[in-house]
Amino acid sequence: MLFKYNLNGWTGQPCCNSLQYITNVLINTFQNHKQYCAKVLGTCYVLFSSNLLFTALGLAMLGLGLWGLLSKESFSQEKLGSLGTDPMLLFVFLGLVLTLLCVTGCVGAVRENYCLLRIFSVVLLALVAAQVLAAIVAYGLQGRIADFLRTGMLTAMVRYQDDLDMRFITDEIQTGLQCCGADNYRDWQINSYFNCSAPGVQSCSVPASCCVDPLENGTVWNSQCGFGALQLDEFSAQSVIFLGGCLGSISRWIQQHSGLISTVVVVLLGECIAVKAI
After folding, report:
1. Does the keyword Transit peptide apply (predicted)?
2. How far, CA to CA in Å, does 257 sit from each of 133, 154, 189, 214, 252?
3. Does the predicted model carry a pTM greater than 0.70?
């Protein structure tokens, strides 16, 4: 028991005020610690959930790149020498980097490892800065970027039969965006095999990836579904192939998904702020 002391000596009265003060300090400390733990746990939960989502995205990109390499048999002995120039390696690299980064964030959030979280935060800030810089540059150079895309698309169309990578990318774009050619389907006249003056069986044709229904309600891809399409007028051709060019489709895709792109940037910034808050 605690006692007070005054000028007359020990009074023998319990020091109730001191006990109450100590009790209040302990209660306040416990409540503050409880609130801090709840804040940290909530932040870690948000970090873990968002990183888990981006990990799945990274694995999807990695899988797409590996699927592209395997589908073209890029690991075969005769093609192994040119593997370094395969554009599918870009998907593999980006998917691997994104997966490793997000796994670092997940582990750091679960284990509350501040070193991993700081590394994650620095890399994330660099990625956000690169995205913002790329958006500014793209906005300022819209005309040049459009010309660059058109030149690249036309080059891929010219080399369609001679370069498997160009063929793969062109087919994926035309199939995914349901388009044909750069500006319209008649751009395929630029290809020496599909040109109407060509002597082969592919004369006046377009690739099967331009076809509205390349399977023709079956299960086997009909590689000849676009044969003779350039001889048709637009009314007749629209039931067989896509008439619109891919440049317009790419522009519309970016406009339609601008909200998603902005959301990704906001989420990345939010993760950076969350890491700083821990």
Report:
1. no
2. 19, 25, 32, 27, 9
3. no
